Amino acid sequence: MSSIITSIVTKTTGLANCAVYWAKVGAELSKAVYKAEGLKPPSSKEFELVYKNALKFIKTPSEQQKFLQQAKNFQPTKECAYKVGIYGIQLLAFFSVGEVIGRRQLTPYVPSHH
Question: What's the number of domains the chain is made of?
Answer without folding.
Answer: 1
